Each structure stands twice: as C-alpha cells, then as structure tokens.
Amino acid sequence: MADDEGTIAVPQSVIEVTAFMPDARNDPHPKLKALRENCPVMRDEMAKTWFLTRYGDVRATVNDRSFVRHPLQSEEGSISRQLIEDDEAPSRTSILFLDEPDHSRVRPPLAKAFYTRINKMKSQIEAIVDETIEAAPASGRFDLMAEIAVPIPVLVIARILGVDEDRLPEFRQWSEDVILGLNPVRTPEETARMETGSIALDTYFRELMEARRAAPGDDLISDMVQLQASGDAPLSDDELVINLGALLVGGNLTTTDLIGNGVWLFLTHPDQMAALKADPGLGAQAVEEVLRFEAPVSATSRILETDKAVAGCPMKHRQVVFCSLASANRDAETFDAPDAFDITVKRPSHVAFGGGPHICIGAPLARMEARRVYQKLFERYPDMRLPEQDLVWRALPFFRGLERLDVEI
Ligand code: HEM
Q1: What is the pLDDT of residues 70-85, one digit of tens each?
Q2: What domain range is 399 assigned to?
Q3: Is the CB of 96 under 6 A from ligand 1?
Q4: Helix, strand or coil for residue 236?
Q5: Does any domain span residue 61?
Q6: Other beta carbons less than 10 A from residue 408's beta carbon
Q7: Residue with CA nearest ligand 1 atom 18
Q8: Which residue's alpha carbon is nearest to atom 32 within ligand 1?
Q9: Beta-bridge mates of residue 392
Q10: Which residues pair with 301 in a beta bridge?
C-alpha cells in the first residue's frame, strides 16, 4: 500500500507480496523493491519463514548444497508445510522436494534422458508450436492464453512422453486437473478434480510403461523403461510415475506463463518488438529478458539442516528460507536499469529457474518453446496489438501469469 507521497510501506509478511493481495497480484515489484531496499532478510513469524529479496543472497542460497528441500524437514506450522498435501511423504515426492542421497540417484538419469529427447525432437517441438499458431484465428480478437499459451506446453510434453494420439484429449484434461494442486485455496470441487486427474494420470503412465516395455516407441517413457531395465536408471516404477507427473505439473503452467508474459511485454514495448523483428538473432536473449523481467515462478525455498548464518543473519535448524526470484531479478546491485524491459543488452544471468542441485530441469525445453513462439507469432501476425481490456493476473501465490490475454489482429 502506498502513502500520500506514493511511498510503498515495507511489507511485514510474505503473504503481502503474493497474488493473494490485489496490489501485488497486479504488480508485485514495488513491494519487492521496498523489501530489497529496507528489509532484505525478512522474518515472517506468522508464515514461519525467512524471505530473501536480494540477488546475491538468493543466488548463494539456492546454490548452497547444505540446505534441504522436503517440507516435512521444516518446523511445525511453516508455510512450506501448509503448501503441501497431507500425503506428501518423502517416499512419495518427485525430485522437486527430494533430498540426498535420493535426489542424486533419481535426477541425473531422468535429466540425461530428457535432454537427449528434447534435442532429438527439436524439429517436432517446433512443428507443434507452428501448427498451434497456424490454427489460431486469422483475424479479429482472441484470447492468446487459450489459443496458444495453454495448448503448446501440454501438446509438447505429451509428444515427448509418447502419449497416444487417441488419448490426447483425456491427457490434456488430466493435466489441467492436476495443476489445480498448485492452488492452496482451491475449492472442494477442485480438490476432487485434482485427485481424480492424478489417479487417472498415474494409471495411464503405468499402462504406457507396460506397453513400451513390450514394444518400445520413440519417446521418453520408452527411454526410461529401457534405462531402468539395463540398470542405468535405478528408479522404481513408483518413482518413475511420480517424476513423469512432475514434468507435467512443473512444466505446463510455467511455460504457458513464459509465453503469455512475453507476448504481453512485447505488445506493451513496441521498441522491443521492433528490435526483435529487426534482429531475429536476439531471440534467445529476448527469452532470458522475459524470464528476468516477469519470472513465471516468483519464489523457491530451502530449509536449514543445521543452525547457520544465511545472508548474514543467524538462522536455525528446520527454519524455511523463501527466496524471491522475482525480486532478485530486479536487483539494481546486479542489473543496470532493472525496471527496464530491454532485450538488446546482454545482462548477468537471472534466477528465474532457481539454481544449484534443484535448478529447473525443464529450462531448456521452456526456452526452446518460448523462442519459437515469439518468432512464429509475430511473423504470422505482424500487426498484432492489445485491445482495451482489464488485465487479470492469476491469483496463485508464487506464480506470475495472466488468466487471459486478448489480442487483436
Ligand atoms: C518458464 C518455464 C519454467 C520456469 C520459470 C520454471 C521454474 C522452476 C523453478 C524456479 C524451479 C525450482 C528451482 C530451485 O528451487 O532452485 C523449478 C524446478 C523444476 N521444474 Fe521448472 N520451470 C519452468 C519450466 C519447466 C518445464 C518445462 C519442466 C518440465 C517439463 C519443469 C520441471 C521442473 C521440475 C521437475 C523441477 C524440480 C527440479 C528439482 O528439484 O531437481 N519446469 N522450475
């Protein structure tokens, strides 16, 4: 909240900077700046968490291997515990919250197979982007999120995993349903949909694994069951199913928002759109600048395994440290003119994908999809513009994306 002179009050709690609060939902950056400048290491006793907002502190914390990740390692009542499902036992978690020694056993073979797959399928992934853009309306006004930003990531991951064409409509529905799990204040009806979707996906992944064991295909599930059989991927079937699900939950909404936030930024910064059109070689840098400027995931967390100083403050065993990626990416200590969206300058690396051992496994895929979308979209619609509308940002804490984005051709 700003006072009469426009000064932003320094937030006292983490909730104040999430999309639960209307002002932060519309634009979290003024409050994050107030924290960065006045209280860069904030303790929130209600949420039982620390909150770091400076780039240097965030970077050092996400990279530090002495922290752990699983919410049940944190103190009673912490925000991390409140955000997980009751049955999120350490044995039922994906790599997202997996700790050592299991993280180092499960992630490397999955990451290696995933990256090999993405590289092998680059032209297929780009074809999905192109076809989706070509299928969008040729003229008039439409919602870019519904027509382009939502379908592309789910169609791409379905192709990578090897989902059968005839099961695609169901797969899209289940993917949407499981993502409801990201919303801690979902309705009972949404919880029921989430649970049904999650069971259906689980069952389908197991079916696919059996089918690909019998007759391997050209897809990630075939790769993983073969690596399992040869002993090169020491994962149980349960672990494989949980982590295939994590590729969906971790990758769909986030990539959707990278696409949506980017299109919105280019349409509201015509000089940057012109720069991209004039030099398509700026494509990769443009994606990085969108990630920096409006990070689709605004925060990640770590948990202390021992008492120690973090960001210069003494902290205790089992305390949670939330790292604001959105804030770190706008820190003037690291980025010149941080509040300018500028794709033409080479900037230091952002932290939109986190860092260290848990750095986003899907980063190369998200980058590949977004780069192709920006290129193809503005090629197909050279005169695309933003019509008059009230922009609605999603009310999901720790994520930043638009509910809809109407564009006019
Ligand atoms: C723009 C798109 C994306 C953003 C902004 C994003 C962001 C993040 C962030 C911030 C983390 C936590 C990192 C940390 O704590 O250090 C993460 C982890 C993860 N992401 Fe992404 N992500 C994106 C796309 C994807 C995609 C496309 C996939 C999969 C297909 C994916 C799957 C995952 C998984 C499985 C993890 C857990 C990794 C681990 O803990 O070892 N993400 N992501």
Answers
A1: 999 999 999 999 887 6
A2: 15-408
A3: yes
A4: coil
A5: yes
A6: 16
A7: 360
A8: 250
A9: 404
A10: 322
Mutation pick for ligand 1 pocket among 288, 298, 353 (CB with most ligand atoms within 8 Å):
353
Determine if ligand 1 sits within 6 Å of the CB of residue 362: yes
CATH number of the domain encompassing residue 191: 1.10.630.10
Q: What is the DSSP string of 38-98?
A: H-SEEEETTTTEEEE-SHHHHHHHHH-TT-B--GGGSPTT-HHHHTS-TT--GGG--TTT-
Domain count, the chain: 1
Q: Is the Cβ atom of 262 under 6 angstroms away from ligand 1?
A: no
The verdict on the CB of residue 245 being under 6 Å from ligand 1 is: no
Note whether residue 247 is domain-resident: yes
**For the segment 339-393, what is each residue's pLDDT rounded down to a tens digit?**
999 999 999 999 999 999 999 999 999 999 999 999 999 999 999 999 999 999 9
Whether residue 7 is contained in a domain is answered as: no
Please list, in sequence order, all residues whose beta carbon lies within 8 angstroms of the beta carbon of residue 192, skipping any fewer than 6 positions away.
none
Q: Is the CB of 297 under 6 A from ligand 1?
A: yes
The SS3 assignment for 160 reads helix
Q: Compute, in angstroms, the gap from residue 360 CA to the centroid of ligand 1.
A: 3
Neighbouring C-alpha atoms within 13 Å toward the C-beta of 301: 28
